[in-house]
Amino acid sequence: AQRVTQPEKLLSVFKGAPVELKCNYSYSGSPELFWYVQYSRQRLQLLLRHISRESIKGFTADLNKGETSFHLKKPFAQEEDSAMYYCALSGGSTLGRLYFGRGTQLTVWP
Amino acid sequence: KAGVTQTPRYLIKTRGQQVTLSCSPISGHRSVSWYQQTPGQGLQFLFEYFSETQRNKGNFPGRFSGRQFSNSRSEMNVSTLELGDSALYLCASSLVRGSDYGYTFGSGTRLTVV
To answer: Which residue of A76, A108, B17, B62 lies most exposed, with the fewest beta carbons within 10 A?
Structure first.
């Protein structure tokens, strides 16, 4: 069964510190993986997709199929990074459907 | 270009009533999916439409239904509302099904059932 696990509900770091938001998944096949972000009072928006291997706002995420993980990383956190982050999975027979993790609320202190 | 538009933004309904929510996808997007977001359950998939056909359905009772029109606009309907249906309902659109470009979400409709 498809499942996305974000083990940390809350994560706090100080400005300038590295941050890593964890995401593990369960999926039989080749998944498409995404990170979505929801800033306070804003809509859910796409941050990263694994297939593009891009860096957005300094964030990167690498798909590790061996460990079935897709952790989100940023070397130097900024206050404006404070938001709710969701890891999501799609693919195969579940085409058109996103499975979301429960989200991690990141707070970056000044 | 305009994003995903959901109307209305807020709704208050009484138990037992029914409600219809509307979603206009980004122009050219043909896949529309719906999600329910609650503090207790997080983001849960309701259904997905493509080319006016329901392609995927989540684990929700039959009181939840939807449809898609030829212009890709979509509506979802909830009949016989229950208190537990209070949630933020999000619509997302994508160019095609399973697009690796991801899905663009609307701001949602906040439904409160009293």
So the answer is: B62
